[in-house]
Amino acid sequence: xxxxxxxxxxxxxxxxxxxxxxxxxxxxxxxxxxxxxxxxxxxxxxxxxxxxxxxxxxxxxxxxxxxxxxxxxxxxxxxxxxxxxxxxxxxxxxxxxxxxxxxxxxxxxxxxxxxxxxxxxxxxxxxxxxxxxxxxxxxxxxxxxxxxxxxxxxxxxxxxxxxxxxxxxxxxxxxxxxxxxxxxxxxxxxxxxxxxxxxxxxxxxxxxxxxxxxxxxxxxxxxxxxxxxxxxxxxxxxxxxxxx
Length: 244
What we know:
- Helix content is 39%, strand content 10%.
- It is an alpha/beta fold.
- Strands 3-2-1-4-5-6 form a 6-stranded parallel beta sheet, with helices on both faces.
- α1 packs across α4 (85-102) and α3 crosses α4 (85-102).
């Protein structure tokens, strides 16, 4: 990983506030940009039922945001799935990929904020524990150039909550992770992004988000604009869930 980072000579600014935008924005995928958690839960449940086991909603929620091989181990131990971990992952990924091909379940505001960032010249990276085939489906569903880098779960040694995925994404973009803003929806993802040094925005999805002084929280991506992203990059925090 590089020890120094390239610097933009003309950093993009928010046209409304005039404040500098981050060097990059780093995006989780499942639950943050797209509402695929129901796809994952359905795929897990089908595997467990096929093996004669029981898989509760709470069991499924415990895997949200996890490395897929780690999730496969839980499906073996708790769900009784009698397959090798690699085969479990292959089955899960194939099922979710099929569902994504039928319908890309965008979360509110996701496409709009990606478009604003692209127009403003802010590079974005996709940082997901889903595998490359799923990341490619999302990238293919947005205009060319929306994502300058993609890091998937099968491209890293240590998945979330380890910071490696976000550190790899920043390195591929040639930026300091501390100059980035990351969007995440799960506890493992929040831990990964925070440990990388990025400023973090939690996006409410299927799991509650912790209330922390260093964490901005939003119900979805509809209220997120360039001014908010610039403010987060400058160290400010917003909590749009405080009254919810």
